[in-house]
Write a structure and sequence with these properties.
The complex is a heterodimer of chains A (about 80) and B (about 150).
Chain A: E1 2-6, H1 8-14, E2 18-21, H2 26-36, H3 38-44, E3 50-53, E4 56-58, E5 69-73
Parallel strand pairs in A: 1-5
Antiparallel strand pairs in A: 1-2, 3-4, 3-5
Chain B: E1 2-5, H1 11-19, E2 27-34, E3 44-49, H2 53-69, E4 73-79, E5 81-83, E6 88-96, H3 99-116, E7 119-125, E8 128-132, H4 136-143
Parallel strand pairs in B: 1-4
Antiparallel strand pairs in B: 2-6, 3-5, 3-7, 4-6, 7-8
Helix pairs in contact in B: 2-3, 3-4
Classes of the chains: A alpha+beta (about 80), B alpha+beta (about 150).
InterPro entries (chain A): Beta-grasp_dom_sf, Mopterin_synth/thiamin_S_b, ThiS/MoaD-like
Organism (chain A): Caulobacter endophyticus
Pfam families (chain A): ThiS
C-alpha cells in the first residue's frame, strides 16, 4: 500500500488529501487513480506537477515498496 | 533552524532570542513579512506546506545562502494554516561578522522563499477562494541572484 498525498489545487479537485492505494509502481498508482477519477489522473500529469516519493522528487517511473509515501505537488506558490 | 508555525508568533521575541549571547557577530539583519488585507479583498491567507519536505527544501537553501554569504547563523520561521491580515507570515534573520553579508543573505533568502519554497497559497475573500502562484516580479527578484 502506498500512502498518496495531494496538495494545493489537486486536493481541492480530488476532494481528498490522503489515501492508501495498492500499487507496486508509480504507473500502477496512476492507473488505479484513473480508474476512480479520470479527471484527477489527468490533472496529476498536468504541467508543473511534480512527484515526490518518500519526500524526494522523482522524474518518470518509480517502484513503490510497502508504506511508500507518494506526494503530488502542483506548482509551488512560494511563501 | 527552520520552523513551520501553526499559530501566530512574535517576531520581536524571535529576534531578541537570536541576538542573545553573540560576541563574535557584528551584524544581525532581519525581515518580517505580514499578511495584507488588500483593501478588504483578502480576508484570510491560507498556506499549505508538506511537513518534512518543506523544511528540508528551506534548510538546503539556507545552508547554500550561509556558504555563499559567509553567514555565522540564520533562523527562519514561516506560518502555515490560516493567517489573518496583519499577522506575521515569515520571519528571516541572519547573523554575520559584517552588515553587508547579513543584509544580502536576508534579501536572498526572502527572494527564494517568495518564489520557490514548497508552499501552496490560497487567498480567501468576499469573492471566494483562489490559489495563488508566484508573480512575475517574484520570479524576477529571485533571478537577480542567479549566476
Amino acid at each position: 500500500m502506498a500512502r498518496v498525498l495531494l496538495f494545493g489545487r489537486l486536493a481541492d479537485q480530488a476532494g481528498w488529501r490522503e489515501r492508501e492505494v495498492e500499487a507496486a509502481s508509480l504507473a500502477a498508482l496512476r492507473a488505479s487513480i484513473a480508474h476512480d477519477d479520470a479527471a484527477l489522473a489527468r490533472a496529476l500529469e498536468g504541467p508543473g506537477v511534480q512527484v515526490a516519493v518518500d519526500k524526494a522528487l522523482v522524474r518518470g517511473e518509480a517502484v513503490l515498496a510497502a508504506a511508500t509515501e507518494v506526494a503530488f505537488l502542483p506548482p509551488m506558490s512560494g511563501g | 533552524m527552520i520552523t513551520l508555525a501553526q499559530a501566530p508568533f512574535d517576531p520581536g521575541a524571535l529576534l531578541t532570542a537570536f541576538c542573545a549571547g553573540r560576541d563574535e557577530t557584528g551584524a544581525v539583519a532581519s525581515f518580517v513579512g505580514l499578511a495584507r488585507a488588500e483593501g478588504g479583498s483578502a480576508s484570510i491567507l491560507e498556506l499549505e506546506a508538506y511537513p518534512g519536505f518543506t523544511e528540508s527544501a528551506i534548510e538546503a537553501f539556507a545552508v547554500e545562502a550561509a556558504g555563499r554569504f559567509g553567514l555565522q547563523d540564520w533562523r527562519i520561521v514561516h506560518r502555515v494554516g490560516k493567517i489573518a491580515p496583519g499577522e506575521a507570515v515569515v520571519f528571516v534573520t541572519t547573523a554575520a561578522k559584517h552588515r553587508r553579508a547579513a543584509f544580502e543573505a536576508c534579501d536572498f533568502l526572502m527572494d527564494w522563499l517568495k518564489s520557490r519554497a514548497p508552499f501552496w497559497k490560497k487567498e480567501h475573500g468576499p469573492a471566494g477562494a483562489r490559489w495563488i502562484e508566484p508573480t512575475a516580479q517574484d520570479r524576477t527578484d529571485a533571478q537577480r541572484w542567479d549566476v
